[in-house]
C-alpha cells in the first residue's frame, strides 16, 4: 500500500511543468509532506522512493551527487552538468540550489522543524542517484557565449594640421621677439622712465609741502590756549557754590527773625490780655457802689499804674515795629546784593561760554581748513601728474570756505595732459601748423615753389629758437618755452601764429590750455585757503 502511494506521488512530481519550482518527492501539490506508513522501516521508504533501482546507480552522464536528507529529486548544478554552457553565469546554479534547499527544509504540519526523520538518517548511510531535468539541461545548453569586441583607434589628418598651425605660430612669435622692435616691448622706455621720474619728483614735492602745511595746522591748533577759559569756568563754579552757601545762611537768618516775630506776637498777646484784665477791674471799680468805693488815693494809684502800663505797651509796640522795619530793610538789602552778584556772575558765565564757543568754532574752522588744504595739495599733485582728481575735488566742492573754479571741475573726471605728453606731441602738431601756414602764405609761387614743396614733404622746421615773425620762428620759440616748463609762454607765442596754423594745431593747443588753466586754478585755490 505504501509502495503504490509513493509511485503515484513520483508520477505526479514528474508531470509538473518546467516553469514551476522543484519540489521533493515527499511533498504533495498542496504543500503537505507524506509520511511513511506505520511499520515501514526507513530502508523500505527510501527504497520505495527510488523505485526498482539499486541502492547506488551510476549516472550515464557522470553525475555523482549525494542528496540532502529528505530529498528524492535533486537537479544537477551547472558545474556538475557536462552539457551545460561553460560561459553561463552562476545565477542559474544558485537559483536551482536555493529552490532545492527550500524543498528540502519543508516540514509537515505535524512535525517540528528541528526533528530528525528516519529518511534523513538513512540518507547519511546511502547514496541515492539524482535525477536530471531535461528542460534545465536544454535551457543551459542554449545560452550563447558572450564575445568581446576590440576597437582599434587610429590617428587622423586633423591632429597633423593642428600641430602645423601651432608650430607656425610659435615660430612667428619667436621671430617677433628676437626682432629689432623687441615685440611685445617697445624701445621708448627712456621717455617713459623720464616721465615717471618727473611725476614721482612732483609727487614727492607735493607730499613734502602737504606735510609742512599739516605741521603748521597742528602747531596752530596746539597754540590755542583753553586754560584761561577752563580757569574762569572753575572760578565761576566756586563763586556759584559760595553764593549758594550765602543764600542758605540768609535763609537761616530769615527763619530766626520769623521766630523772633512770633515770640514778640506772643508777648503782645500777653500784654493785651493783661490790659484787658486791668480794664475790667477798672470798670468794676467804677461801677462799685459809692459806699464801698475806695479812697481817692487808691484810685489815683490805679490810674498811675494803668498809665504806666499803657506807656510800656506803647513803647514795646514801637520797639517791635522798629525791629520789624530794620529786619525787613536788612533783608531787602541782602537780597538786592545777592541779586546783583548773581546777575554779575551770570554775565561773566555767559561771556566765558561765548568765548569757549568761539574758541571751539575757531578750532573747528582751523581743522576744516587743514582738511581743505590737504585736499588742495592732493588736487595740485594730481593736476601736475595728469591723473583724475574728482575724489580730491569733492571735499572742496562741498565746503563754504572756497569756491571751485570751472577750469578744475570740467576736467576732474579725466585729468589733464602731462608736461611730458605735451612735449612728445608738440613736433607733430608744429609740423602740421607749419605746413598749413606755408600753404596759406603761397610759398609755391615764383622761385620758392620747389623749396616750399620739398619743405612740406620733408616737414623741415627749426628746432632752435630764432627771431622773426614767421610761423617757423614762432613755433621754434614756443617749443623752447615748452621744454623749459613755461606753458603760459608757449601759449602766448602760439597766439601769434596765422589763423590757418592755429587751426591746424587746435587740438594740441586745447590740451595745453586746459593744463595751464587747471594749474592756475589750483594755485589760486591753495592761495585762497592759505590766506584764511
TrEMBL record:
Record-annotated membrane-spanning stretches: 157-178
Domain of life assignment: Bacteria
Coiled coil: 299-366
Residue stretches of biased makeup (Low complexity): 19-29, 76-106
Region (Disordered): 1-146
Keywords associated with the record: Coiled coil, Membrane, Transmembrane, Transmembrane helix
KW Coiled coil (keyword) present: yes
Biased composition (Basic and acidic residues): 1-13, 55-71
Protein name: Uncharacterized protein
UniProt organism field: Roseivivax isoporae LMG 25204
Record lineage: Bacteria, Pseudomonadati, Pseudomonadota, Alphaproteobacteria, Rhodobacterales
Amino acid at each position: 500500500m505504501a509502495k503504490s502511494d509513493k509511485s503515484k506521488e513520483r508520477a505526479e512530481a514528474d508531470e509538473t511543468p518546467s516553469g514551476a519550482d522543484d519540489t521533493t518527492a515527499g511533498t504533495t501539490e498542496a504543500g503537505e509532506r507524506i509520511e511513511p506508513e506505520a511499520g515501514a522501516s526507513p530502508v523500505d521508504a527510501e527504497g520505495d522512493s527510488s523505485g526498482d533501482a539499486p541502492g547506488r546507480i551510476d549516472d550515464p552522464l557522470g553525475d555523482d551527487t549525494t542528496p540532502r536528507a529528505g530529498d528524492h529529486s535533486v537537479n544537477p548544478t551547472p558545474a556538475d552538468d557536462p552539457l551545460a554552457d561553460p560561459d553561463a553565469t552562476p545565477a542559474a546554479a544558485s537559483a536551482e540550489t536555493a529552490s532545492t534547499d527550500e524543498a528540502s527544509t519543508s516540514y509537515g504540519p505535524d512535525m517540528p522543524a528541528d526533528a530528525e526523520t528516519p529518511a534523513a538518517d538513512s540518507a547519511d548511510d546511502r547514496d541515492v542517484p539524482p535525477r536530471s531535468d531535461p528542460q534545465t539541461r536544454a535551457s543551459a545548453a542554449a545560452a550563447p557565449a558572450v564575445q568581446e569586441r576590440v576597437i582599434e583607434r587610429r590617428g587622423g589628418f586633423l591632429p597633423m594640421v593642428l600641430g602645423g598651425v601651432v608650430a607656425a605660430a610659435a615660430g612667428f612669435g619667436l621671430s617677433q621677439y628676437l626682432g629689432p622692435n623687441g615685440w611685445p616691448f617697445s624701445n621708448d622706455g627712456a621717455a617713459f622712465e623720464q616721465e615717471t621720474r618727473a611725476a614721482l619728483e612732483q609727487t614727492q614735492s607735493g607730499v613734502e609741502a602737504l606735510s609742512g602745511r599739516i605741521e603748521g595746522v597742528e602747531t596752530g591748533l596746539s597754540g590755542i590756549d583753553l586754560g584761561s577759559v577752563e580757569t574762569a569756568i572753575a572760578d565761576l563754579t566756586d563763586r556759584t557754590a559760595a553764593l549758594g552757601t550765602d543764600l542758605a545762611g540768609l535763609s537761616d537768618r530769615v527763619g530766626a527773625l520769623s521766630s523772633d516775630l512770633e515770640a514778640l506776637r506772643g508777648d503782645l498777646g500777653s500784654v493785651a490780655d493783661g490790659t484787658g484784665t486791668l480794664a475790667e477791674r477798672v470798670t468794676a471799680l467804677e461801677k462799685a457802689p459809692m459806699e464801698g468805693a475806695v479812697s481817692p488815693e487808691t484810685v489815683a494809684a490805679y490810674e498811675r499804674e494803668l498809665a504806666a502800663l499803657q506807656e510800656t505797651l506803647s513803647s514795646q509796640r514801637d520797639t517791635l515795629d522798629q525791629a520789624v522795619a530794620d529786619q525787613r530793610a536788612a533783608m531787602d538789602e541782602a537780597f538786592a546784593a545777592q541779586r546783583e552778584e548773581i546777575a554779575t556772575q551770570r554775565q561773566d558765565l555767559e561771556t566765558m561760554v561765548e568765548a569757549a564757543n568761539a574758541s571751539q568754532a575757531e578750532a573747528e574752522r582751523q581743522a576744516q581748513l587743514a582738511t581743505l588744504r590737504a585736499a588742495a595739495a592732493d588736487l595740485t599733485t594730481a593736476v601736475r601728474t595728469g591723473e583724475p582728481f574728482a575724489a580730491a575735488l569733492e571735499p572742496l566742492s562741498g565746503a563754504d570756505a572756497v569756491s571751485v573754479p570751472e577750469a578744475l571741475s570740467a576736467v576732474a573726471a579725466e585729468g589733464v595732459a602731462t608736461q611730458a605728453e605735451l612735449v612728445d606731441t608738440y613736433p607733430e602738431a608744429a609740423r602740421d601748423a607749419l605746413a598749413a601756414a606755408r600753404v596759406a602764405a603761397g610759398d609755391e609761387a615764383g622761385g620758392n615753389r620747389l623749396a616750399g614743396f620739398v619743405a612740406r614733404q620733408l616737414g623741415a622746421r627749426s628746432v632752435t629758437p630764432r627771431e622773426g615773425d614767421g610761423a617757423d620762428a614762432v613755433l621754434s620759440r614756443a617749443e623752447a618755452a615748452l621744454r623749459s616748463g613755461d606753458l603760459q609762454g608757449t601759449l602766448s607765442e602760439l597766439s601769434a601764429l596765422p589763423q590757418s596754423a592755429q587751426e591746424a594745431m587746435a587740438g594740441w593747443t586745447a590740451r595745453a590750455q586746459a593744463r595751464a588753466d587747471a594749474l592756475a586754478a589750483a594755485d589760486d585755490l591753495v592761495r585762497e585757503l592759505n590766506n584764511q
